[in-house]
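thought: user wants a sequence for this fold. calling inverse folding tool.
action: design(structure=
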């Protein structure tokens, strides 16, 4: 008579202690990030001209874009949990030190720029490592739900972080806001330290002797992958077409329509609600058959909504259109992230997440000056239409590549 070993099924993502610890740490870190950026922008505005404040805020983006590929290599070589803990610790200590400095004496713009530079370097390590963690904390069939939960955490950080930072600034100035951000980063550390990862096989064999060799190996893996390679093009095109209208075009459109700053807030609220709904839908649904085809169609429909936004004369209708943009763009973005998680070999996920982040965080901001200049030459409507065409091209590309179209999200 032989005994049969019964293995208990893994709990769903929303009940998995590992996932909940990771999600709590990620939410706290995202909130801290929002509060930090608001405090930095306020301190920079108080210490210089608007143009100088803009340069301080832009300083973080340069090292983050330049070093992110290296951050992916570091995450894969040393393990994403270790890299996330170290980078969040550095962010915590840096921001708390800034809080103490600001409370003693107002910092110069050079000091603020140096802080932003260090923060951007640490972000280049943090972001790929965060992207490489989900397969190490959840089973393969729960990764889509984890991605949806991550999207909800991102939206929560954006929605709650700005008011929290504004309240801290109102109560005690930027020094108090920096202190709040540092405490939020500190809150994530015990959750990360308590996180135990699922073992993965084959990682050691897939590392070369040098960091540069690892980087080339990851790029070759990505180029040869039937889904991930084309998916990077989809991500780049969609963000190039989407980010400019939302960040630059919306302000100019609101000014032309007479909606004012409150109008921008209402339109962004509509977008955020739609994007949050998309993340919630993926968290609940989990399994998406032919997810690549769904991705292509949602991008195409979202592109139609982006083009329509420039021709809506009244604010309530613009908010409704923004809601549809957020729903379709949020769903397509969440599907892109979930496909990266499920299709990629975990041994390469740090490097692949770095390339994905570079496609959006690195390339998309290039559309800011181009969008502003183009609107000055041709007006809002034609530029929004062109950007919508770029987003539609991303969707068509995803549908045209059969391997992407047939890709599925298990659940």
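)
observation: tool returned 411 residues.
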């Amino acid at each position: 008579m032989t005994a049969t070993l019964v293995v208990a099924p893994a709990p769903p993502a929303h009940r998995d202690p590992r996932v909940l610890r990771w999600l709590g740490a990620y939410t706290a870190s995202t909130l801290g990030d929002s509060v930090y950026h608001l405090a930095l922008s306020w301190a920079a505005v108080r210490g210089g001209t608007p143009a100088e404040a803009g340069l301080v805020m832009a300083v973080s983006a340069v090292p983050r874009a330049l070093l992110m590929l290296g951050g992916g290599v570091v995450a894969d070589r040393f393990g994403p949990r270790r890299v996330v803990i170290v980078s969040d610790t550095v962010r915590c200590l840096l921001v708390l030190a800034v809080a103490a400095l600001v409370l003693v004496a107002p910092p110069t713009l050079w000091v603020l720029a140096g802080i932003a530079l260090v923060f951007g370097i640490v972000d280049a390590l943090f972001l790929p490592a965060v992207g490489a963690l989900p397969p190490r904390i959840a089973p393969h069939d729960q990764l889509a739900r984890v991605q949806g939960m991550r999207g909800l955490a991102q939206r929560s950080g954006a929605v709650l972080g700005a008011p929290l930072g504004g309240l801290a600034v109102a109560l005690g100035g930027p020094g108090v806001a920096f202190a709040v951000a540092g405490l939020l980063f500190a809150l994530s550390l015990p959750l990360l330290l308590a996180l135990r990862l699922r073992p993965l096989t084959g990682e050691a064999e897939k590392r070369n002797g040098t960091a540069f060799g690892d980087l080339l190996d990851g790029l070759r893996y990505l180029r040869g992958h039937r889904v991930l390679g084309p998916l990077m093009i989809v991500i780049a095109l969609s963000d190039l077409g989407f980010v400019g209208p939302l960040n630059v075009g919306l302000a100019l459109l609101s000014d032309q329509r007479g909606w004012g700053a409150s109008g921008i807030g209402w339109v962004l609220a509509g977008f955020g609600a739609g994007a949050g709904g998309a993340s919630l839908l993926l968290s609940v649904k989990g399994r998406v058959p032919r997810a690549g085809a769904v991705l292509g169609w949602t991008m195409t429909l979202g592109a139609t909504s982006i083009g329509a936004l420039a021709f809506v004369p009244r604010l309530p209708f613009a908010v409704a259109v923004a809601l549809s943009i957020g729903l379709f763009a949020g769903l397509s973005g969440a599907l892109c992230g979930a496909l990266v998680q499920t299709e990629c070999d975990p041994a390469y996920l740090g490097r692949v997440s770095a390339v994905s982040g570079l496609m959006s965080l690195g390339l998309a901001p290039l559309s800011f000056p181009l969008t502003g200049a183009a609107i000055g030459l041709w007006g809002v409507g034609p530029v929004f239409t062109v950007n919508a065409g770029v987003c539609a091209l991303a969707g068509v590309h995803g549908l045209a590549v059969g391997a992407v179209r047939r890709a599925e999200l298990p659940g």
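thought: summarizing for user.
answer: Here is the designed sequence. The chain is about 80% helix and 0% strand.
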